[in-house]
Amino acid sequence: MNVSKSILGPALFVCMLVNLYLIFMFAPTESSMGQIQRIFYFHVPTAWVSGLSLFVLFISSILYLWKKQRKYDIVAHAAGEIGVLFMTMFLVTGPIWARPVWNIWWDWSPRLTSSLVLWFIFVAYLMLRNFVENEEKGARLAAVFAIVGFVDVPIVYMSIRLWADIHPRPVIGGGESSGLHPDMKIAFYFSVFTFTLLFLYLLIQRVRLQKTTVAISEMKKQIAY
Amino acid sequence: MTETQSTAIAVTGLTKSFGNLYALRNLSFSLNKGEFLTIFGPNGAGKTTLIRILSTLTKASSGEIRIADFSFENDSEKIRRQIGVIAHQTFLYENLTAEENLRFYGRLYDVENLPKKIETLLSEVDLQLRKKDFVRTFSRGMQQRLAIARAMLHEPSILLLDEPYTGLDQHASEMLTNWLKRLRSAEQTILMVTHDLEQGMELADRIAVLVKGKLVLNQAQQEIDPKKFRQTYYDLVEKDKR
Amino acid sequence: MIAKVGVLLWKDILSELRTKELIFSMLVFSLMVAVIFNFSFPPGSEFIKDASPGILWMTFIFAGLLGMNRSFVYEVDTGCLQGLMLAPMDRSVIYISKLLVNFIFIGTVELIVTPLFAIFFDFSIIDSLGPFLLMLFLSTLGFSVIGTLFSAIAVNTKTREVMLPILHFPVVIPIIICAVQATSAIFQGREWSEIWNWLKILIAFDIIFLILAILMFEYVIEE
Q1: Domain-by-domain residue ranges, chain A?
Q2: DSSP annotation of A29
Q3: How many whole angstroms separate alpha carbon B109 and alpha carbon B107?
Q4: Is the pLDDT of residue A168 over 60?
Q5: B13: which of A13, A140, A150, C69 lies 20 to 30 Å off by Cα?
Q6: Could you give the percent of chain B with pLDDT greater than 90?
Q7: Does residue B238 sit at the A interface (CB-CB below 8 Å)?
Q8: Does B19 contact A218 at a Cβ distance shorter than 8 Å?
């Protein structure tokens, strides 16, 4: 566990500095959007980390229901929290980018709408966790909800896509990654890498913290019941 | 072979835990056919958890349980046919009549000759005159009597009682005691858990004490002096607190 | 197994016929929603016609949640759920019977409310009754499948009535989209192929989540 403190932490710190350099100094300014385009190097990786969290949440929920070991539930809980955090960042950076470029905050595009729905699923997951008195039962119910939620995501995306297709609106911009300058690609992929490290670091730290919390509450219950 | 046949419940190394919190810790005991075992324990000792595990409502974390020689792993439906549960909750539907409640549960257990069975049971618990009345009009005592009839419908080989005296008035608890005595002389296997030392002491063949998920006493009733038992019990509970 | 589902269904429907609590509350609620929606448009507005499929489905879903919220409350509060779990049968029987109860109750309300809404909001479904009923069947099944599972989850939380919609809405968004779009395609007399596009998603949703819910239910009700 100390690996995260001794290696991952410092590595992450260095990567973040390099990442900031690459994003703000190294990558060229995009010609039509200008400086604001640089938010893209944060926006897309937050989506990537959200997806990663959802995947970890899904896998650890299945493992929990299968093996009934508390450690899987702790990982699921941590992944759920990180998911909400990064999904929120994604939903905030999106409009900040959209406003100056396309002159609207929110465009109900399939990607943005699906992300909002996914954010609601994550939030509902955390609320469910907090509102069940019995911890073991709460863990089990949350795992069931996470699995249903994960399976739902592609169907949500598909139906929103189809809904958006039959109601055509003015097409906004190109694809986010179309026609990237090679230097932009370097900055972009490095940023994804850095955010992945950040995800791992947060996950490990959150799991450690949660394990300590659980250990303390267990001790309390053993002393006085 | 004769030994397994006379064993109604065999529990070895039963543990129920979540993380490092233990509700039940390495419990082992067995109950022969026709025996009446009372397990005493303070609140939070794991009594209800034990009943829930034995009645397949909760899964154990580890350990082995056999009921009527069926294993918990593969035969949980067969086990459910063997057991009847009476708890402080009656499992009855208020908007159905007494008769309809029994018919409902009887059908779930595929009871044969159901109408006749219902008649017999209702007269045994002295409710035949109220069979067309809604359960919501019944007193607590009447509801508990109907719950007894409900639990006996499928002629379970083992009865599990979870604090059956809770909320009963004097009259109703005397009726319950008499009923249990009758069952005991009919060689019904019974396991009762309760925190109430008044009840279940004289009925039991064996007495056990559960404290913080551990069995700290398991003796034949004859070996226990009823007058001293209260003190023994408090000592056992207090010792574990320290 | 089917016989056991029947026994459970008989019990729930008999209780409901005696009290009529659920169906009546759902009906009255639906009609009030119609009145309230009417005020969200200027008098005589044409928008209300375009919005009527949405209004119809919001009504069904809110009314449905009202009903589904109750499906496990009684069972859990009185301990009857334990009585059911003690019975020698697969526990998915409990899920399937509750799903059917919810489906029947919500379906009844929908069949009563739709003609009334047709009068209130001036639409006609007589020409395309078949597709409409098929769409109604698939969507109602879909949100009952999720709603029944989630009501068994929500009943364990401190804020039961609020928790169910919070869990339910994000997951049934595909149902809402498909039902509303299919309904407006039907109202506008569009071609079958366009309606079918939406029904396909509904069918996929129903099958996937019905299987998943049956598999998961045991974990939800276990103590």
Answers
A1: 2-107+179-219
A2: P
A3: 5
A4: no
A5: A140
A6: 33
A7: no
A8: yes
| Tokens 């119809």 found at | C56
pLDDT score, position B3: 47
Spatial distance between the Cα atoms of A113 and A156, rounded to a whole number of angstroms: 9
Tokens of C188: 């506008």
Among chain A residues, the shortest Cα distance to B42 is held by A225
Question: Which band of pLDDT confidence, cut at 50, 70 and 90, is reported for residue A173?
Answer: very low
Strands lying side by side in the sheet with B7-18: B21-32, B7-18, B62-67, B70-71
Please, which residues 49-78 of chain A have a Cβ atom closer than 8 Å to chain B?
Answer: 68, 70
Q: Are C126 and C151 in contact (CB under 8 A)?
A: no
Task: Please tell me the total count of domains within chain C.
Answer: 1
How far does the CA of residue C17 sit from the closest CA of chain A (Å)?
32
Length of chain A: 225
- C64 or B18: which carries more pLDDT confidence? C64
pLDDT for A46-62, tens place per residue? 999 999 999 999 999 99
Which chain A residues contact residue C216 at CB under 8 A?
144, 147-148
- Is there a contact between C120 and C38 (Cβ–Cβ < 8 Å)? yes
CA pair distance C57, B64, nearest whole angstrom = 51
Supply the CATH number for residue B19's domain: 3.40.50.300
Flag whether pLDDT at A156 surpasses 60: yes
> Three-state secondary structure along C150-180?
HHHHHCCECCHHHHHHHHHHHHCHHHHHHHH
Give the total number of structural domains in chain B: 1
Q: What Cα–Cα distance (Å) separates residue C66 from each residue in A110, B66, C70, C160, C168?
A: 30, 43, 7, 11, 12
A137 interface with B at CB cutoff 8 Å: no
pLDDT in tens, C6-58: 999 999 999 999 988 889 999 999 999 888 888 888 877 778 878 889 999 99
CA A151-A155-A156 angle, to 5 degrees, is 105
Structural domain includes residue B106: no
Strands B83-87 and B206-211: unpaired
Whether residue B21 and residue A218 make contact (CB cut-off 8 A), yes or no, is yes
What is the rounded CA–CA span in Å between residue C55 and residue A160? 19
- Give me the residue from B81, B93, B100 closest to C80, CB to CB: B93
Q: Domain limits at B225?
A: 2-93+156-241
Q: Any CB–CB contact under 8 A between C2 and chain B?
A: no
